[in-house]
Each structure stands twice: as C-alpha cells, then as structure tokens.
Amino acid sequence: MDVKLGEEVGYTIRFEDVTNQAATMIKFLTDGVLLREIMDDPLLTKYSVIMVDEAHERSISTDILLGLLKKIQRRRPELRLIISSATIEAKSMSDFFQTSKKHRGPEDHELVPRKVPAVLSVEGRGFNVQIHYVVEPVSDYVQATVSTVLSIHDQ
C-alpha cells in the first residue's frame, strides 16, 4: 500500500496502539479491543465502516460484538457492516442483521423501510487432503518430511 504503518493504516491490540488519530484511515483491531472502544463510545462514532473477519471462529467476544453492532446500526443506519467468513451460514447472518421494523428517515418525519443486507458469495475450490504416515520412527523428521514432499511432488 506504500504507506507508513501507524499513519494511514494502523492497528490496535491489547497494550499496543499503532495509530494516529489525525491520520489513520484504516485500523485493524481485535474484537476485544473493539468491545473496549464500545464502552467509551457506545455508537462507535469514529467509524463509518466496520468489518468483522473470520466470523465463523465463534467466541464470546465475537458473538457479543455482533449483537452490539446490530444495536448500534439501528441507531446509526449509515454505519456499514461487513461480516466475512469462509464457512458461516450467510442466510442466517443476513437474517440476524435484517430487521422488519421501519426507522425514521433523514428528516425524522417519514418511516423508511430498512435495507436488506446484501450477501456476496465467492466460491472457492476445495482440495482433497491425503494423510501419509511413516511406517517406522525416523531420526531426522525434517529430512523425512522434505523427502516425502518431494516424493509426492514427483508423483
């Protein structure tokens, strides 16, 4: 990207913040750090887009975060959420974030239907995995591994 880390692009992890409030446009952080930021700024007003990657790796932090993001998006319909996962059931995630209720429009006069979350699917290729075991113990497992890989490659 040809940028200096901590300027336009930065990251925040537990006990380490490599960002610049005035310059950072893209910020990588863990779900736990984002949960801590929600405690200070309940509507996450510093963000216009939030991407949760690897959502299929379910944890308490991720589940709580997704629930809070749904609540935040009700109050901030302009906040864009991107939830990505290699294996999660996209329909159930879309249903979770879709609400049937209407919300107030820009002038707070009319009720506007909420948008249906978009689902983008990119099909990948699966590769069969074969497991090979050694018949007898080996003294140099690194050499045995390299020999096995080369043997498989030659076949």
TrEMBL record:
Domain Helicase ATP-binding: 1-106
Catalytic activity: ATP + H2O = ADP + phosphate + H(+)
Record key words, sorted: Hydrolase
EC code: 3.6.4.13
Record carries keyword Hydrolase: yes
Entry-linked InterPro entries: DNA/RNA_helicase_DEAH_CS, Helicase_ATP-bd, P-loop_NTPase
PROSITE patterns referenced in this protein's UniProt entry, alphabetically: DEAH_ATP_HELICASE, HELICASE_ATP_BIND_1
Acetylation recorded as keyword: no
Enzyme class: hydrolase
Domain of life: Eukaryota
Official protein name in the record: RNA helicase
Species this chain originates from: Salix suchowensis
